[in-house]
Every structure is written in structure tokens, then in C-alpha cells.
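Support request from a user on the community tier.

User writes: "When I paste my C-alpha cells into the form, the page sometimes reloads and wipes my input. The last time it worked, I copied everything first. Here is what I submitted, just in case something in the input itself triggers the reload:"
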């Protein structure tokens, strides 16, 4: 056995050497050409092993050839893989990002890159291919020309590649749970599964979207148009245009659920600033998040498009190439400049690419912020610093502006420096829930200071402020602690109620009002547009203005649960909202069809990229 293995190694020595070369080279490129932050040793280990599985798989093809042809295959495979790495290196120098297929085919990007590609190439780059020449000469000298590998050998090599891949993904998953579905970031993928696997993953997702798009045709949008216009509700004339020409501050309050509002923990208010702000704002206590796996990015998608995010995957990633009629693009025609401000890597959630599709003029991301270990915690820059450093950015903008601020400190695992703890952690057996209140309290303080700075900067009077929770922060895994906090059992009915997130619309000079209407993030776009005095009658949107007099109380969540004025439907059971008890399905029925239809139509639009078929002469102008 040992003898046999030894023999195999010597028969195919250059097969193994080539794997080694490509593996080590890829790692060296990671370390020298890209700027990939490493948080711990485990991440270093993952980065080191991640090129291996695909490298073995690539060279497997050479085993189908014998003699000289095998040798040539080795050179060819090495060259192809090195070229992929090299292309990423050059691309990274220009875009500070990794290649994703649609971007490669976007002519505007390539135009940019095409002009400057020669200035991006450096003489030392040729080293990327040096080992291949060495390998070719060496194999030639040695007269390396093995016979065709046996089926068993090929099978074993394939198994080795698969096992290596599973081990790689396994370790990566412990380091970064739900890597492939949730926390999507190109940099994170490269870091965890490697460049080659990432490109395969990217190719699969993009071709799936392409195929769905190819099968869609223009007639499908007509049904949707009819449905949407039949359900359109006129805005309240008293509210329409109330904030005409004002700057819009959209503040995404990370992981903040509505149950913390006007609530105390150990006798201390959790959100004192928001509680005060509500006194002078329109406050919607029955407002739901409607996000799916795309979390924050899904909430952004809902807000800007009034379309539902997808039942699985993050639409920001899977359908960034679609045509949209998003708010930033629409309000440009009304003189607005738009921006997103978020102190995280720009490629997180594929934002850099999606924001272009949504028509954002500017994206202030990590690079535009001064981030140090002292002013960071958890996911990055602390909210206080983020908001303060954002001020000069918005001051540099043309007025009026539409600016979305995405906060981050109140993100799982809810860690804080001691100096930022305004209230002590709660004392249940569940550390996550205990810390949650304290981080929510911190963000509340950061918001208070931000409002003060906005006033000082003279921006307050001419602006409106829309604060909303992006999605839940406490998942169902924490039901026991939540039951203890709320003093009631967390039934499926309560779980849905916990998906309420705060929505506060603050317009300087307006009196406070609590509006109990049931709604969701889907309703934000028409609500905001109408406040700005912009019609949405002809837009494809599933939301209704939250101020509209004859709007129906309604919100459908991405898990198909829906909530009406009197009922709540979840897990195929209808509940009476007054009692929280199961009830006859008749109470839920009136809006059951609406819930189904809306999700179906919205998905259809996204999968088929149907907005591209809209009549260019109508008010729904597309690019
Ligand atoms: C990351 C931030 C948080 O940039 O938006 O993402 P989440 O995990 O909440 O979706
Ligand atoms: Mn979030």
C-alpha cells in the first residue's frame, strides 16, 4: 500500500508540484495584492487552506490525459487559474473590489478599466506567471510524461477535492454562520471559500437569474399594472406635499424592534430619546419589517422600491442587474441628490453595485470614514462616530438631498465598550437579550447627539426625519428570555407581533400623533413620496401611503404571515388580535388573497426583470 502510494507520487510528481505552486501562489497574492482584514488566527488558517480544494479539482482534468498532453494540461490549467487571479489583482487596483461577472460585462465599467488598464499593470506582475514557466521547463527537462491515471486514481482525487471543500466550508461556517445565504460580502466569500470557488458560486447565481429573465415576456407586467392601479389609494390632501422640497434623512436603526419603545429595563428607559422624539412625531406602533434572508439590504430594497425582497437569498445580490424605478432615481427629476452613508465595506450586501442600479448618486462607505480600533466595536465604527462623521458628508451634498444613514452598533452580538453603557445589562440567563437593551440604549444616545449636531449645523428646519428599524434583533432562539421580559408566553402569534419595528416620521414644527394603522416597510416609498408632493399613481409599487385615509390595515411578511386590522395569520392558523387566540379562518380570509398575490407578483417582477418592459413614454420612465 505504502509502496503503491509512493509510486503514484513519483509517477505524477508534477501534478502534485503544480497543485502546490498554484496553492501557495494564490495565498501569496491574497496577502500581497489584496487588503483583506484578518480578525483572528482561525481566519488566517481559512485563508491559507481555501485555494486548495479548487486547485485539486482543476488539476484533476490533467489526469484524463497522458504523456505530453498531461504536461500541457498542467501548464494550461496553471495559466488559466493564474490569469483569473491576475485579472482580480488588476481589477482590485482600480475598483478595490473583486470581479463579479455582471460587472465584468457592464460596458461602462469596462470602459473605465479599459482606458486605464495599462497604467494598472506593473512589471513585477509578471511574477504571477513565473512559476508556470519554471514548471514547464522543469517538466520538459525531466521528460515527465506519465500514463493515463486509472479511474480509481481520478475518483480518489475527486473525493479529496470534495472532502477539502467540505472541511473548508465547515470551518468557515463556524467562523461565519450562514455564509452563503446571509452575511453576503464578496470580501468575506474570498476570505472563506477562496477566489476560485467564489467565481463558480457567482457564475451559478448569475446564470440562474439570466435564465429566469430570458423566459419572461413583456405581457406579464400588464396584470401587475392592473392590480397595482386597482389598489392605489389617494394620499390625504392634508399630508400631500407637506415636506415638499425638504431634505430627507432616512435613518435605518439596526436590529431595533418596536417592543423597546416606551419600555424600561430595571426601571431605566431603553430609548429615552426616541420616546421624546415620538412626542413630536408621527409614530406608527403597528409597523412591521418585511425582510427575508437579505436582512438590512432587504429593508433597503423595500424602502427604495416598494417591492418585496425575495423568499430566499438577498435580492441585492441576486438581482442587482435588474431595472428598477427606485426613489433615488425618481426624485432626481425633482432636484434631489441622493446618498447612502454606511461605515462598512462597500461590497457588503453587494451594495456598491446595487446602489448604482437604484440610482443613488453617492455612497459614503468605510473608506470615507476615519475608523480606528478605539472608535470601533463589533461590526465596525460606533454609531456615535458614524453619525458625527457623516455630517460633513451630507453638508457637501446639493440640497435638497435624500440621504440614508445605516447604523450598525446595535447588531448581534451586541457588544459595547464599558464607557458606552448608559444602562446596565439586563440580568436574565440569556446574555444576548441582556446586552441588547444596553446597545439599543447606546444607539438611542448616538441619535440624540446626531439630532443636536444636525440642529447646530442649521440643517434641521429644512429637513424631515424618517427613523425605522430594519429587522428584528432578537430571534426566536431567545424566546425564554423574551417571555420573561414581556411577562407572557411567546406563542406563534406573539412571535409575529415581535416583528414590529418602530417607524417615526419627524417633521419639525408638526405635533406628535400616534397612528395605529397596520403597515410595513413596503409602505415607506409612497408615504415619503407623497409627503414630498410627488405622485406615485403610475408607479409599480405594492405599498400604500400610511397617511391615506382609505388605506387597509395590512402587512404581509416574507414568511407568508400577514396582519390585518382584526386578525393575524401565521403558520396556516388564524388568530384573533384582540385575544391572541386561534379563531375561525374567516376572520383572516378577506386579505388572504391579497397577501398571496402581492408576494407572487413582486417575485415575478424581480425574477423576470419585468420593469424593463414598462412603457418608456409613461411616467414610469426607465433607463
Ligand atoms: C452590514 C449591515 C448589517 O453592512 O448592514 O447587516 P445585517 O446583518 O443586519 O443584514
Ligand atoms: Mn441590519
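"...and here is what came back when it finally went through:"
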Amino acid at each position: 500500500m505504502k509502496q503503491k502510494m509512493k509510486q503514484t507520487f513519483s509517477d505524477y510528481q508534477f501534478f502534485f508540484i503544480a497543485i502546490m505552486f498554484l496553492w501557495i501562489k494564490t495565498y501569496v497574492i491574497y496577502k500581497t495584492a489584496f487588503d483583506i482584514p484578518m480578525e483572528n488566527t482561525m481566519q488566517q488558517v481559512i485563508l491559507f487552506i481555501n485555494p486548495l480544494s479548487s486547485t485539486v479539482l482543476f488539476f484533476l482534468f490533467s489526469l484524463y490525459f497522458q504523456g505530453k498532453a498531461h504536461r500541457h494540461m498542467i501548464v494550461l490549467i496553471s495559466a488559466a487559474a493564474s490569469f483569473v487571479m491576475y485579472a482580480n489583482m488588476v481589477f482590485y487596483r482600480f475598483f478595490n473590489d473583486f470581479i463579479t461577472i455582471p460587472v465584468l460585462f457592464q460596458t461602462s465599467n469596462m470602459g473605465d478599466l479599459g482606458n486605464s488598464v495599462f497604467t494598472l499593470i506593473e512589471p513585477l506582475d509578471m511574477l504571477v506567471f513565473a512559476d508556470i514557466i519554471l514548471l514547464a521547463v522543469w517538466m520538459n527537462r525531466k521528460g515527465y510524461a506519465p500514463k493515463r491515471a486509472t479511474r480509481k486514481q481520478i475518483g480518489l482525487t475527486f473525493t479529496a477535492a470534495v472532502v477539502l471543500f467540505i472541511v473548508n466550508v465547515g470551518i468557515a461556517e463556524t467562523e461565519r454562520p450562514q455564509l452563503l445565504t446571509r452575511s453576503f460580502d464578496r470580501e468575506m466569500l474570498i476570505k472563506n471559500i477562496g477566489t476560485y470557488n467564489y467565481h463558480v458560486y457567482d457564475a451559478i447565481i448569475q446564470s440562474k437569474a439570466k435564465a429566469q429573465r430570458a423566459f419572461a415576456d413583456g405581457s406579464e407586467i400588464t396584470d401587475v399594472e392592473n392590480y397595482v392601479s386597482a389598489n392605489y389609494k389617494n394620499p390625504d390632501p392634508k399630508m400631500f406635499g407637506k415636506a415638499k422640497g425638504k431634505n430627507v434623512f432616512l435613518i435605518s436603526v439596526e436590529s431595533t424592534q418596536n417592543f423597546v419603545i416606551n419600555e424600561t429595563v430595571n426601571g431605566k428607559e431603553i430609548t429615552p430619546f426616541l420616546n421624546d422624539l415620538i412626542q413630536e412625531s408621527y409614530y406608527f406602533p403597528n409597523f412591521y419589517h418585511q425582510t427575508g434572508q437579505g436582512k438590512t439590504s432587504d429593508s433597503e430594497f423595500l424602502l427604495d422600491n416598494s417591492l418585496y425582497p425575495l423568499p430566499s437569498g438577498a435580492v441585492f445580490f441576486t438581482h442587482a442587474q435588474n431595472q428598477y424605478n427606485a426613489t433615488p432615481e425618481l426624485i432626481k427629476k425633482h432636484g434631489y441628490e441622493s446618498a447612502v452613508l454606511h461605515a462598512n465595506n462597500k461590497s457588503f450586501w453587494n451594495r456598491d453595485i446595487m446602489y448604482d442600479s437604484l440610482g443613488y448618486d453617492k455612497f459614503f462607505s468605510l473608506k470615507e470614514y476615519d475608523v480606528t480600533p478605539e472608535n470601533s466595536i463589533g461590526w465596525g465604527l460606533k454609531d456615535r462616530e458614524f453619525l458625527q462623521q457623516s455630517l460633513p458628508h451630507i453638508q457637501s451634498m446639493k440640497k435638497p438631498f435624500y440621504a440614508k444613514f445605516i447604523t450598525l452598533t446595535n447588531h448581534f452580538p451586541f457588544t459595547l465598550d464599558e464607557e458606552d453603557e448608559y444602562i446596565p445589562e439586563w440580568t436574565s440567563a440569556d446574555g444576548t437579550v441582556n446586552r441588547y437593551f444596553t446597545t439599543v440604549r447606546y444607539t438611542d444616545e448616538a441619535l440624540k447627539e446626531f439630532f443636536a449636531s444636525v440642529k447646530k449645523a442649521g440643517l434641521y428646519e429644512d429637513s424631515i426625519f424618517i427613523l425605522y428599524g430594519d429587522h428584528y434583533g432578537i430571534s426566536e432562539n431567545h424566546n425564554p428570555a423574551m417571555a420573561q421580559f414581556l411577562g407572557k408566553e411567546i406563542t406563534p402569534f406573539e412571535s409575529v407581533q415581535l416583528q414590529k419595528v418602530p417607524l417615526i416620521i419627524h417633521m419639525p414644527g408638526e405635533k406628535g400623533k400616534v397612528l395605529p394603522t397596520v403597515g410595513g416597510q413596503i409602505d415607506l416609498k409612497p408615504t415619503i413620496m407623497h409627503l414630498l408632493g410627488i405622485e406615485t399613481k403610475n408607479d409599480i409599487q405594492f405599498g400604500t401611503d400610511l397617511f391615506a385615509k382609505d388605506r387597509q390595515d395590512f402587512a404581509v411578511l416574507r414568511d407568508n404571515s400577514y396582519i390585518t386590522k382584526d386578525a393575524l395569520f401565521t403558520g396556516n392558523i388564524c388568530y384573533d388580535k384582540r385575544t391572541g387566540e386561534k379563531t375561525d379562518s374567516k376572520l383572516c380570509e378577506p386579505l388572504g388573497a391579497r397577501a398571496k398575490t402581492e408576494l407572487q407578483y413582486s417575485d415575478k417582477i424581480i425574477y423576470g426583470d419585468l420593469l424593463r418592459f414598462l412603457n418608456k413614454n409613461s411616467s414610469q420612465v426607465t433607463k
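Agent notes: The reload is a front-end session timeout and is unrelated to the input. Residues 220-613 form a domain with the Alkaline Phosphatase, subunit A fold (CATH 3.40.720.10). The chain has two domains: 2-213, 220-613. Escalated to web team.
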